[in-house]
Amino acid sequence: MTKRTIALGVMKLSVAQKQDHSALDTLTEAAMVAFNQVVQKTLDIEVSSFSFTGHSLTPSRQGYQALDFVQIGINEKTERKLAFLLIVTDVEIAAASMSYLLALPSQLTNVAVISTRRLVDHGEDKLLQKGLRTERLTTIMLHCFGRLLNLSYTKEPTNYLARVEMSDDLDAMRHFTVIQQQQMVKNLPQEANDRYSRGGKLTFIIRHILGNLPRIFRGAIRANPLRITTKLPTMIATALSVIIVLIFGGETWDFAASVSYGQLTVFVITSFLAASFVLYRAFSFRLIATRRGQTSESSVVTAAATYLALVLTLICMFFMFGVLMYGVVVFVFPDALMSTWTSDKDGATFAAHMRLAAFLAAVGVLSGSLGGSADSRSVVRNVLFAADET
To answer: Does the reported pTM lie above 0.85?
Structure first.
């Protein structure tokens, strides 16, 4: 048993044009009753769950985006001081890599988005649809709750953590294993991140960053910095356009041949800090405080994991640019030119080549971040926050 009650909210969201929200309300309430029975009796953990109606939604040009729901969920979760939030909506949600979305559990934010639109096929018996919708919604809620608690997928089709390809896959999912139940009880207080600042915010932020380092690193690695790199074509193009011009300038070779390692280190670190700040401002979620100015532990963990993921992405780019520039130096420039191009030092040495490659890579990271902020926010956010589409 956990030592404190964990608050789990279920928020119902409908489209702005609909006047009658009773169908969604009835469906969600019925599913939540069944959900509570499994969570509180089968798992024997203290979860205080309740439902409420959120504000209506208006689609953007691309339709309803899952990450828009996540941003709403972050705001509601912070204001209502919830540990976890399940958002149930009756609209079609656009997916990043699929034709449609049944659910999106965002482990980094402790928010899961569930759409009821595709729970049943249009051809199924309408008399059976009400009960079937309730059962399938209950199952997908339990599936998402397990994913928010960092449980892994299983190959057993009757398990709540089985992968869901079609809505009828939910019909076979009926249980958690004993090991999964024990893991959920263990993970629940750790993954809740439901503490709020009461005094100095800086002290609160530092303490909870240090206290949540394993979860922060796990969230950053799960985001896959290498994959984020592939989602930033504008950043890569901007960086390459700058460093290709610089590498053919004699002043750049003079600088690389003469600069000290200490000066170069300061420049590289400063470039990383500036670039990561620019990308964080461009791609992170807006993390708010409560109306009383309290900062949540969940916001601290989300912000730290996002920043770390972007720093790791920049490190990947730094080495990519460095290797590329070193290859250009070695295989393109003649040795005689490298020896005479610099003013008073030999630019053909291995040390000079490494300094040149490091300098150009740092310039690429810095200049690329300025252009990279023009890349699609939704694409990068999908990689950071929504890698677990169902």
So the answer is: no
